[in-house]
Protein 1
Amino acid sequence: MRCFLSCLTPLSLLVMATAGGATLFAGGATLFAGGPAAAHAVKRATNDRDADLIEALIDRGRFDEADRICADGLSDAEAQSDDFARWSIRRARVTTHRLLATDDFDDGSIRQALRPIAELLSRYPDHDRRLFLEAAELEVRAAAARHDVVIAAIRPPRSDREIRAIKRIAKLASDCRGLIDAVDDRRSMLASRGAARLDDWDPAMPADLKRLGQELNVMLVSIQLMQTELFSAGSPDYVATATAARAAADLAIARLPADSSARQEIERLRVSAVLRGGDHRRARQDLEQLTKSNDDPRIRAARIQIYLVAGELDLAKDLMDEFYGESAISAPESVEMDLVRLSSLIVGDDPSIGDWLD
């Protein structure tokens, strides 16, 4: 992706990286029942008005207002309650999005974003929602890694930002695997004691843990796939990291139920890994097996990307024109479609690319 991003300005890149999480994962995880809205592929419908309000304020860049609401929520909640954990996660999320607009999401910035969660876990290391809080910490670190990937894409190879991104992604993937194992262990423990219905039994916990485990599997594959963006398309490192992402997707698919939305999302990510690995024919076959519909903008974007790689520019243009119509402004909002549209302008050396970025 380096060659694709090299023509863009840092500002336009950061706008894309901030818009819903770009290609890593959009939105925050459904950390437990009634919590923030999920990554759109694994989301659970929520009636949580507070979560919706915070997300709306984040989308509009009204971070000070969102932070004040989070502070008020924390002051009204008991320290060991689920509500306090939710507000801690929301406040970390607000700070994370604020920091995504800065030049350097360094280690100090990560600590700043993590402070609400870290302070809660420091006071209550055995918090019932510890695993969910740790998942939220991974999201913050993933956002910082994404920030590094974006900046590295417009700098010379082996820049300090690229090296830091590689290290961050490797540690993030390792910690994500460890948390998946911890969630599995907790689910097994609850299953073995569930029939006893002990005094501290939380009937929502098994379902919440199942959902969390699925989301972490999506996160892991996304992280692996993100690493490809540090290298020039077609290079040995690019192909190697794409192959590793494909292997991670295969393992995750084997662990997940066939009808789960998490598995469907990972299957889509796997198509992207196959395409980046250099096999556009296999990627097309795999995508056709998933769905022939283009209703989902992410599927449409994947199909367009396959056409672009295969040199079938007319087919790519037809799918884009169908989506955007006569006015891109009135088209449905989709970061994936906007990115693939930009990619098509670059591939076609379209002189309107400057107008599009404006």
Protein 2
Amino acid sequence: MGLISNIITNYNYLKQDYTGIHINFYGISSFIINCIIPLIIIVVFFLVGSKIKDKLFGKSNGIINFFIKFAFGYISISSGFLILGMLGLFYQNILYLYYISLIVIALYPLNTLKNRLGIFPEIFKEYKKQFISNKLINIAILGFILIAFLRLIPPEVGVDAIWYHTDYPRLYLSSHSMMNINPQGKYYPGVTPTLSDMIYVFTISISAMDSSRFVHYGFYLLVVLEFLLLYKKRYPFAPYAALLFVTSPIIIRVSSSAYAEFQWVFCWLIAVFLITSKSKHDYKNLIIPSVLIGGALATKLWFLPFFGVYFLYILIINFSESKLKLLKLLTFSSLITFSIPLLWYLRAYIITGNPLFPTFWD
């Protein structure tokens, strides 16, 4: 009898373990939520950025303005987190009040919301149009985008993402401030400009840390769209550049981690597109690219050499201008550019005495 009961017990175990269907609804729901959060962030960034762009530069539509508005939203909202952090206001109630304020700003007035979001169907139509004209390349691009997306299913393995891109926001939230960090040892990157990590402050504060990876993946998709929708209009080989981008092993690896790479690349590509669209520059058409370069500098300290390239390009293109006008253009652009990461440099100076820390750090 003992043998028979043992066989029956083990048979039931094998049946349940190997043939039974077990669905982890918690895991599925968490994955869906992690997908939804970046979509909400993208919409809020766009709507807030639209308010800023339209107020300062007038209302305008089109593909380029979609990307500019989104970049403005990213820079302004993330800078708002920085200000709260520097003032020691990373308390739950204050952060939630900030989130509610952003939502109100984004949605108001409700009767114009449909028109303001009308650019999204246009983006889809434009993508569909270029997809048909380059089917094989776009299918290949989608294949690698899918591979990157599937890498979001396993847990985070990115060293930098675990080390500081999500670790530091947790530290800021636990201490309610961004000014209490010790810049020694493993904590030295926490003093450098990391505007992108301010988005991760939001995801961690709402107990959705894993969605930080999905946010970075969202910027990855935006960079691909810049190649396919923006640069394709000027350069026929742009889809090939997008394919080269998504097939790069390093891009595949970092696309599914909570890094700070695609945020600065996103701003940089728009700025390059804008400054290369003019044979000569004046004060007006240098403002937006300068702000975007500033956003990239606020995201990554090591972007400074790229600013040198940007500065040199303006110098060469406008070299035929009078020396006084050229000097004014370069000064004007530089002042706007460095006004964006200025608070980051001020923070580094207060904490370490070096605004460009860890540069020149022994």
